[in-house]
Amino acid sequence: MHDLVEQRSAAPPATHRVLVLAGGAPTPRLLDLAQSSVPRGARLELFTLSADVASAQEGTGALLDSPADVPLPSVRAVLRALHETRAAALVLGYPDHARARSDFTDIVERAHAAASIDLIVCVDRHERPWNRVLVPYLYGPLDDGALRMARRLARSGDAAVTVLHVVEPATDDEGDHHLRASIDGCALKIVTSDDPIAAAAAETRAGYDLIVLGGRERPTPGRYFTMRQQRLLLTTDATLVIVHAGRPPAG
After folding, report:
1. Same domain, 206 and 102
2. How far is CA 227 from the centre of its chain?
3. What are the residues facing 192 on neighbouring strands?
4. Number of C-beta neighbours around residue 39 at 10 A
5. Integer Cα distance of 121 and 90 in angstroms
6. Fewest CB within 10 A of the end CB: N or C in the chain?
7. Is the dihedral of CA 63, 67, 68, 71 positive or negative?
8. Residue 155 phi, psi (nearest 5)
């Protein structure tokens, strides 16, 4: 049985609807990412969908005590929830157990094909706070969602956020001026290299807690991680958050 649980935050007008998907319970990490997806000045309207929720009346505390190693909701249930909630973002975690990964990939592919939403995936690898955040940035729309999240994390004041931009040798700095104007509270680090993946992997060794990356516009059928994401997963123990950008909200 799938139950849709709504939790409303006390905040200003203009709503940003977020659906958090979990096998058992939406972890505090996923709830933090839902909050970080909200544009400046908007009110969070939060929905959770779980495959193992006993009662909508039991509230968030009971949800957080639910077992984590249970199946994800079905693709049909997720698509129905996205339609019913009119969510602008879907937040979900990458499964720890291999048997759920096929369902996870199917949900990501179908949700992105069915709706123009921000899809935010968390590969949670440790319990330490996200004090240092790295955002490897490449020009283009695929990294716009990651940059939006970087700005919101920086505005929260809880983390030091560094946007890493790797440029090829002899590249002009016209794009850098645009990037500097758009990072809004993040530090910008520019390095020169003809191998952006290797340069990003080298920077991750500097002790970051969280890495925020752009995702594919449409995931490749049957595969989730890109080469860049796989390389970073092998290089660091940092948590990865992968943002597949949908519609371009403000903030």
Report:
1. no
2. 18
3. 167
4. 14
5. 8
6. N
7. negative
8. -70, -25
Mean pLDDT for each 10-residue chunk of the chain (251 residues)? 52 78 78 89 89 41 41 86 92 83 86 86 89 85 84 86 85 62 81 88 90 76 79 89 73 47
* Distance (Å, whole) CA 109 – CA 224: 9
Estimate the share of the chain in helix, then strand, then coil, as percent rounded to the nearest 5. 35, 25, 40
Of the CA atoms within 13 Å of residue 94, those in its CB half-sphere come to 16
- Residue 209 domain boundaries: 132-239
CA distance 69 to 62: 16
Phi and psi (nearest 5°) for 89?
-150, 145
154, part of any domain: yes
Question: Quick check: helix, strand or coil at residue 107?
Answer: helix
Secondary structure class of 241 (helix, strand, coil): strand
* Greatest C-alpha distance within the chain: 61
Same domain, 72 and 184: no
**8 Å CB contact between 112 and 235:** no
7, 115: one domain: yes
